[in-house]
Amino acid sequence: MAESGSPPPERLRVDKWLWAARFFKTRALAAEAVQGGKVHVNGARVKASRPLKPGDRLRIHKGDLLFEIEVLRLAARRGPASVAATLYAEDPASLAAREARREERRLQAAAQPQGGGRPDKKARRQWRRVTGRG
Q1: What is the CATH number of the domain that holds 73?
Q2: Considering the domain boundaries, does residue 125 fall inside one?
Q3: Range of the domain at 73
Q4: pLDDT tens digits for 61-88?
Q5: Going by DSSP bridges, is the β-strand pair 51-52/12-13 parallel, antiparallel, or unpaired?
Q6: Which residues are bridge partners to 90 per DSSP?
């Protein structure tokens, strides 16, 4: 592990970098995603122990989101989000697609009726009157 005063490593495990870059909350989740085929490096499915170097291109599937990024720097330690954002550059098309998906989900949520869940006493009475069961 690199000390705070020493230079960054030349190569680093994929799972460790994904954790340090804050794509996954734990290193175990990062390793699980890599083993599950959710992470591709330079277009190929890899193992969690594969060494990563600056210039590598990653494709990360996380839920229904897709990140296509290029590794700019390596960091063995997990730091603040502002530092983690400097470790990679995201493809503009990937960013635009993710923003479009976020907007689509927002519109779907707005279109759904509010007040879901169990009906209250008044709604149950109205339902009984409409269906003729009471």
Answers
A1: 3.10.290.10
A2: no
A3: 12-98
A4: 998 889 999 999 999 899 999 999 999 9
A5: antiparallel
A6: 69
Integer Rg of the chain from CA: 22
Query: Taking 50 as the threshold, does the pLDDT of residue 2 lie above it?
Result: no
pTM of the full predicted structure? 0.75
For 41-55, give one letter per residue: b (16+ CB within 10 A) or e.
Answer: beeeebebebebeee
Kindly state whether residue 91 falls inside one of the protein's structural domains: yes
Q: Residue 134 — pLDDT band, cuts 50, 70, 90?
A: low
What is the count of structural domains for the chain?
A: 1
95-131 as b/e: b if 16+ CB within 10 A = eeebeeeeeeeeeeeeeeeeeeeeeeeeeeeeeeeee
